[in-house]
């Protein structure tokens, strides 16, 4: 009995142990299955993330084809940095065949995008006109942020949104110039009327918003200007044109445009050494160029030379040459024929090295058909005192019976390390026609002239350099943005200029013209805390001789001090 009970207990215990073991094995199997399922899910997530990183790299590869290839090691290291942005490693086998431009492709790259956006020279005051390949290269250089197949970046320091391949793009810029200053020693004398010479005045000199639209090598630019002229509140158009940049280093332009003529006129206003151009430069360019001039032509540049030519018509807002509208009438006064003209400029660098640039050039401009106004063809030459805080024109004369107007002259420039010297001379000729009568006062050729010489020295920052796309000298560059805590102060330069404009011709003869002669001695200092902002301070000593207007009946000497706040994007 006892033996049977022991046997039963043994058999029961064995069965219980077997059942428990079976249950434990089943529980362990279920746990392993859950772990395997979790691992499979984690692997799927890793594959998705890795696939996303690879797609980003493939997109970058298409854009990188325009660049020289990096070494295998550099490509692998950079590709791994891209993939690691989300904490995922990238095998070297993927990285060896991938070349990218240096951005992370994720939101974490915004620091890289902005890191160098405030370094370099100021952006232009004009719309974009670079080729598609140059645009992509600039985006690579400045770095861009990728968001869902789009790029957000600052090529050339200008906010830009584009497709990932740069095929479609839109950029918006800013050229903001606010002037404040006044005149000294300009009080009226006996027998004179008081001119517009305030001791303190302000002027929104330029408030331009360049907007550019790109499709590959086709670019449309439109730039309204809310600060044009000498008085606040003036609103006009600076440019509205179509450009094609598909040919090597060539830009073809049609529409309202500023044709490039003279060295000073080829520079962006964000890069001027002084606040205003020399008087003779403005007089010459306004003959058949200047802002918002209907134009068709092209420019081409290379490392050592630059050439441009345009056929031009009227300026925006002055159809037929007369800006005056008849009150209540939807037409212009006396319009019979519009102006036609042309510009040409060629420049080169016969010698260049790390420390030296030699610039030579020649500019020409003509209005071969002057606009007819009120049954006559006449042209008014006028210019202010090289500071845009007055509406008074020291130089002003109207020439009647005009057949055509032309101007031509040489350009010279020299850079040695941080010092830049340059100058230009221009002769202006006016031929007379027969459409204004045959009086002696309207016969014979009229001749005017003018010139300037300028010097510039960069105290700190990157010195002025030669801009091959403008055929002119560019502004200083900022190597380190303003950061006093680390000893960085941006860039600082000093400028000086001597300028003469002479609108007197054949004085003492029946056909003589007395438009006056103006001489301006100028000195200035410009500080760039970064590429986007500049502060300017100019002093001008003005000497004018003329006796055909009450405000300077006996000639006038005076001075002006003015400053400018500039923002450029």
UniProtKB/TrEMBL annotation:
Residues 29-56 form a coiled coil. The keyword Ion transport does not apply. It comes from Komagataeibacter sucrofermentans. Keywords: Coiled coil, Signal. Residues 109-135 are annotated as: Disordered. InterPro entries: Porin_dom_sf, Porin_O/P. Residues 1-27 form the signal peptide. It comes from the Bacteria. The keyword Coiled coil applies. This is Porin. It holds the Pfam family Porin_O_P.
């Amino acid at each position: 009995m006892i033996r049977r009970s022991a046997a039963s207990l043994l058999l029961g215990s064995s069965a219980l142990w077997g059942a428990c073991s079976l249950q434990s094995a089943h529980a362990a199997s279920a746990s392993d299955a859950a772990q395997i399922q979790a691992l499979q899910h984690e692997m799927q997530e890793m594959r998705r993330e890795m696939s996303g990183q690879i797609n980003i790299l493939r997109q970058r590869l298409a854009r990188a084809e325009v660049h020289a290839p990096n070494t295998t090691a550099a490509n692998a290291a950079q590709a791994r940095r891209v993939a690691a942005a989300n904490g995922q490693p990238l095998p070297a086998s993927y990285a060896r065949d991938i070349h990218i431009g240096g951005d992370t492709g994720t939101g974490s790259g915004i620091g890289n995008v902005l890191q160098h956006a405030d370094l370099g020279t100021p952006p232009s005051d004009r719309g974009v006109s670079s080729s598609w390949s140059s645009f992509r290269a600039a985006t690579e250089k400045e770095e861009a942020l990728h968001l869902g197949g789009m790029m957000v970046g600052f090529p050339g320091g200008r906010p830009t949104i584009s497709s990932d391949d740069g095929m479609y793009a839109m950029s918006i810029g800013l050229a903001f110039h606010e002037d404040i200053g006044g005149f000294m020693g300009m009080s009226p004398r006996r027998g004179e009327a008081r001119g517009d010479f305030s001791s303190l005045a302000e002027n929104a000199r330029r408030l331009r918003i360049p907007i550019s639209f790109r499709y590959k090598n086709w670019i449309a630019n439109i730039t309204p200007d809310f600060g044009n002229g000498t008085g606040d509140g003036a609103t006009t158009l600076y440019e509205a044109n179509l450009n094609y940049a598909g040919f090597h280093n060539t830009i073809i332009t049609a529409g309202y445009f500023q044709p490039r003529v003279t060295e000073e006129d080829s520079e962006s206003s964000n890069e001027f050494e002084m606040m205003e151009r020399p008087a003779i430069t403005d007089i010459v360019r306004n003959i058949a160029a200047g802002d918002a001039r209907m134009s068709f032509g092209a420019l081409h540049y290379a490392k050592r030379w630059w050439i441009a030519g345009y056929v031009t018509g009227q300026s925006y807002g002055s159809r037929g040459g007369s800006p005056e509208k008849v009150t209540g009438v939807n037409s212009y006064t006396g319009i019979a024929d519009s102006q036609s003209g042309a510009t040409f400029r060629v420049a080169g660098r016969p010698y260049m090295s790390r420390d030296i640039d030699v610039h030579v050039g020649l500019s020409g401009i003509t209005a071969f058909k002057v606009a007819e106004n009120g049954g006559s063809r006449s042209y008014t030459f006028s210019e202010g005192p090289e500071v845009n805080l007055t509406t008074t024109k020291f130089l002003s004369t109207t020439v009647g019976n005009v057949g055509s107007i032309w101007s031509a002259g040489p350009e010279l420039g020299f850079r040695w390390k941080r010092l830049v010297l340059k100058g230009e001379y221009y002769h202006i000729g006016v031929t007379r026609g027969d459409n204004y009568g045959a009086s002696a006062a309207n016969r014979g050729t009229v001749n005017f002239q003018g010139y300037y010489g300028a010097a510039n020295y960069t105290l700190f920052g990157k010195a002025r350099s030669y801009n091959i796309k403008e055929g002119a000298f560019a502004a200083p560059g900022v190597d380190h943005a303003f950061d006093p805590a680390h000893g960085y102060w941006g860039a600082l330069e000093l400028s000086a200029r001597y300028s003469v404009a002479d609108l007197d011709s054949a004085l003492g003869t029946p056909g003589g013209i007395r438009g006056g002669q103006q001489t301006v001695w100028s000195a200035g200092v410009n500080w760039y805390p970064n590429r986007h902002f500049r502060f300017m301070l100019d002093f001008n000593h003005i000497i004018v001789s003329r006796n055909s207007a009450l405000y300077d009946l006996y000639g006038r000497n005076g001075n002006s001090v003015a400053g400018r706040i500039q923002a450029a994007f």
